[in-house]
Amino acid sequence: MTLCNFCSGQKLRLTFKLCLISFTTLILGACGSSDSENGTGLVKFYNASPTSPSVYLTLDEDLDSDEDDEFEQTFLSIGYGNALKNTEVPEGEYFYELGWKDGDSSERSELEIITESNLQIRNESITLVVLSNDIKTPEVKLFDIGIIDDESDVDNDLFNLRFLNVSPEYTQIDLYMSKSDETFNQAVLMGTLDYLSLTDNVKIKEDDYIFYITAAGGSDILFQSTEVSYQYNGQYIITVRPNDGVSSTPFVIDNIGNSFVATYQSVDAEARFRIYNGLQENQLMPAYTGAIDVNVVNGSTTTTADIQDLSLGQFSAAFVVDQGDYSLSVYNAEDDVNLVSSQLFSLPENTDRTVFFYMIEQDIDDDGDGEIEETEAKLVSKIVDNSTRERIYEHEVKMLNLAYNADITSVTFSFVKSDEVIETATLRRSTSIGEAQALVLVNNTYNVYAIGKVDGVDYILANQLLTLDETSGELFLLLETDVSSATGYRMRFVPQLAE
């Protein structure tokens, strides 16, 4: 195969067919007989459906047989933007199923089937199964990729690369590639990527690279990746998929290797944040009177956000800002008394975060003699990544305990279904004060309990009914103190993303 310009060092901007052999989607046809009875191939499953739950791939040699020597396997579930590692399978004809777990069991018979058909595992080939589009109207494409075992790749420090567009709204895009110390003007056009068409392989010199995406035939950059490092020989696929983060760029890219997937964001992707006031008034902190002002400053001391009079139990508006490092300062809203100064707040590209402020009490031993001289109230914070997923069959619930109690070191949140009691519930997480824990729950109705343990005895601090459906979105579960409640606590569910 002709080597890419990167291998030869030439910087030609032609039609770049020298850099890439003609694009051909290698779709499996009807299953045929095996060439060898003892050969093996590899199977790989990539989930590119942004609304999907985690999906299981099952291979079955014979649907009608239960013989012990029959090959049947359900592989680990794969979430959006992830892939099954290359897995060895005897060559031959198989039935395949893609399904998701809508109950407690991941047994094949209990899975909800998305699609099923046939595929062929070929000797010394990788069968790539790609799921894309909305999960209600899924598209599945099969590709047959030859396993490359070329000793000259090692000798010449080369790796093997293909490209795949899995963005249904962009049926044609141009993808360019440059070394990391070059600009777009020096980039090589690797080709025009049609939706769900896998390119032929190209050999490239091991180095650090930048990928660029434009509309087909266009020159405006829609996406420029952060640096992607190729330091080892191997076979890789760069996929272009829809961006499910907060940045205005329409894409992210996945670099898929034999056993990993690395995701790369746009180099200029924005980030988003908001602030939550979970600070209860406390007689040990008289400087705080129930509402806060928050000043967010970037590295050049320019004010990014000035949040005024944020009351207990309120979220601020969401702010879209450049990715980077910021500092937070918090003031009592009534008289501008400073409560926190210049707390570091980092926002990586394409992230959405919430800063939760809450109160704890801290014992002080001034002279180190083991005796507590005083107790003071302290304002602390927890920075939490918000889920930007748009799943419809399951949703993330992120639990956060903001209710300080010296006698309760941890709280257990139990999600109890109609055929369970708290003791038999399998869906539960325990958290200490300010600790975030997450569960992904399938659509159902749950009786949710917050349970605290005091002197070895469990107490119900709060409970609430939760019904999840296709419109529920990703949620926070917040446990807070509430003097008006019979137990002194309240639980509430709020969206992770600003409405």
Counted by DSSP, the helix tally is 2
Cα distance spanning the termini: 52 Å
Shape, principal axes of CA atoms: globular
Question: Which CATH architecture of the largest domain is right?
Answer: Sandwich
Top CATH class of the largest domain: Mainly Beta
Query: For the CA atoms, what is the radius of gyration?
Result: 27 Å
- Which fold name corresponds to the CATH topology of the largest domain? Immunoglobulin-like
How big a fraction of the residues is strand? over 45%
Spatial strand order of the main sheet: 12-9-16-17-18
Biggest β-sheet: count, sense, barrel? Answer: 5 strands, mixed
Can you count the beta strands? 34
Averaged pLDDT, please? 91
Class based on secondary structure composition and strand pairing? mainly beta
Detail the poorly predicted runs. 7-36
Give the domain tally.
4
Domain DUF4397: 42-176
Organism: Rheinheimera baltica
Keywords: Signal
Signal peptide: 1-29
Report what the structure shows.
The protein is mainly beta. The protein folds into four domains: 5-23 and 148-264, Immunoglobulin-like; 40-145, Immunoglobulin-like, CATH 2.60.40; 269-384, Immunoglobulin-like (Sandwich); 387-499, Immunoglobulin-like. The protein is built from two helices and 34 strands. The protein has helices at 5-8, 151-155; strands at 40-48, 56-60, 72-74, 87-90, 92-100, 112-121, 125-132, 139-146, 158-165, 172-179, 188-194, 202-205, 207-215, 221-224, 228-230, 235-242, 251-256, 261-264, 270-278, 291-298, 303-311, 319-322, 324-332, 338-347, 352-364, 374-385, 394-401, 411-416, 427-431, 436-442, 445-454, 457-467, 475-481, 489-495. It has a five-stranded mixed beta sheet. Strands 10, 11, 13, 14 and 15 form a five-stranded antiparallel beta sheet that branches. Strands 4-1-7-8 form a four-stranded mixed beta sheet, with no helix packed on it. A hairpin with a 4-residue loop joins β17 (251-256) and β18 (261-264). The longest helix has 5 residues, at 151-155. The chain is globular. It starts with a helix and ends with a strand.
